[in-house]
Design a protein that fits this description.
mainly alpha; Glutaredoxin; 5 helices; 45% helix; globular; Thioredoxin-like_sf
């Protein structure tokens, strides 16, 4: 009787100990400003901060407009986050901002307030109307299959800094 009385508390201690260790081992990714677009990228919080950092660092600002419940945004986010070349350039050569709301700067919505859209702002604080996606009805839209095109536009933004500024 004494043996079975000790066995039950020991069993409970072993189970709770293993459970506590399992919970401790389960690492949860910290919620970051990346919102899934790239956790290794340093993201700015606001458009104004992005403009300041672009000017200060002489790097272009890349602004991604998206919504959490938009299926097209989610598909683009997945392709963007999985593309190593985009992630590397975003980490090292750009000031990055993703917005889930519109800014008051109407220069960021020259052809409407749709999502997803990606725009570039150079260090002189000029929104680059000459760096667009491949769609004439939504100039700044990119789709998951457009990652090569987006890479070319990122490179174009970097070249323009060298030649124009």
């Amino acid at each position: 009787m004494l043996h079975s009385t000790l066995a039950l508390p020991l069993l409970l201690i072993a189970v709770t100990s293993n459970l506590a260790m399992a919970i401790k081992k389960e690492k949860r990714a910290p919620q970051t400003l990346s919102r899934g677009w790239g956790d290794e990228i340093t993201w700015v919080q606001t458009y104004e901060e992005g403009l300041y950092q672009a000017k200060k660092s002489n790097k272009p600002l890349m602004v991604i407009h998206h919504l959490e419940d938009c299926q097209y945004c989610q598909a683009l986010k997945k392709a963007f986050a999985e593309n190593e070349e985009i992630q590397e350039m975003a980490q090292n050569s750009f000031i990055m901002l993703n917005l889930m709301h519109e800014t008051t700067d109407k220069n960021l919505s020259p052809d409407g307030q749709y999502v997803p859209r990606i725009m570039f702002v150079d260090p002189s604080l000029t929104v680059r109307a000459d760096i667009t996606g491949r769609y004439s009805n939504r100039l700044y839209t990119y789709e998951p299959q457009d990652m090569t095109f987006l890479i070319e536009n990122m490179k174009k933004a970097l070249r323009l800094i060298q030649t124009e500024l």
